[in-house]
Amino acid sequence: MPPSIHPPHEVHAFYGALDLLAGEREPWVAEDERGIVAFTELKGDWLDDLYVLPEAQGEGIGSALLDLVKTLRPGGFSLWVFETNTPAREFYARHGLVERELTDGSGNEEKAPDIRMEWRGSGVGGSA
């Protein structure tokens, strides 16, 4: 994956400044005895983020969050994933998302090649 172009304090400021009350973004978190171990964020029909702490990966938490997204967006949704993020691409493919568009990365901040993946929904050939 490309290196982060924003230091942690900028990322925290960005997420801290989100206007969640406006209803534009829908954040969801997964917690256990360790605290918050994963989060996902929807914006319209886009899955903007799905992140699981490395030490919590492989426990089904990401799958549970993705199932939640499918429930919340039964008509389908799209997401962008970096071309080099093979584990994420394989994860999404296992869950029924398909690759729809490849770019050279000129449209993202990182300027890294990425792929638009799509889940077409439970009623259009998608699998729940």
Short descriptors:
128 residues, alpha+beta, Aminopeptidase, 3 helices, 6 strands, 23% helix
CATH topology: Aminopeptidase
Radius of gyration: 15 Å
CATH class: Alpha Beta
- How many angstroms separate the termini? 28 Å
Which class of secondary structure composition applies to the elements? alpha+beta
* CATH homology-level superfamily: Gcn5-related N-acetyltransferase (GNAT)
How does this model look, in words?
The protein is of the alpha+beta class and 128 residues long. It has one domain (22-119): Gcn5-related N-acetyltransferase (GNAT) (Aminopeptidase, 3-Layer(aba) Sandwich). It has helices at 8-16, 61-72, 86-94; strands at 26-32, 35-43, 46-52, 77-82, 98-103, 114-119. The longest helix has 12 residues, at 61-72. It comes from Nocardioides immobilis. One of its GO terms (molecular function) is acyltransferase activity, transferring groups other than amino-acyl groups.
Describe the protein's topology.
Layout: H1 8-16, E1 26-32, E2 35-43, E3 46-52, H2 61-72, E4 77-82, H3 86-94, E5 98-103, E6 114-119
Antiparallel strand pairs: 1-2, 2-3, 4-6, 5-6
How would you sum up this structure in a few lines?
The chain is an alpha+beta fold and 128 residues long.
